[in-house]
Amino acid sequence: MENSLKLSKNIKMVISDFDGVFTDGTFILDENLNQQKSVNFIDIMGVSILLKNGIIFGIISGETTNILEYFRVKFGVDEIHKGIRQKGIVLSSLMEKYGMNADEVLYIGDDINDIAAFDCVNYKIAPSNANPIIKVMPDVQVTKAKGGNGAFREMVDCLMTYL
To answer: pTM, whole model, 2 decimals?
Structure first.
């Protein structure tokens, strides 16, 4: 498989948005206003691959969905940050906590609320169905796959070729 993304063997931490990356951004409301989202197992397997290869993983989401607890429980991911409006501040604090610089961290997101996080890192990835504003930002690389349909896994598989 040809690498569509230019990454680095120096990447030690991957931080992701949730909706629009692990999901296609769609949610279903039932009659009781319960929300349901679809998550692709291909992308979830990507989390397992990262962790097995010693890459620190976390999620910074503007949403408060309990689906994020799945990652905490299944994979022991401590860095699950829900209801975050200032993603750049949280990402900067994570980088400081783990002693990482901008060349060691990759952020993947899909919309304008991810811009501040993108500004913190040198490796910026967006799914192919991301907001057009994000896809034309300087240094943002776009996956072939869409969010919720393998974009996260595409990034992981590409990263693994550098390790």
So the answer is: 0.95
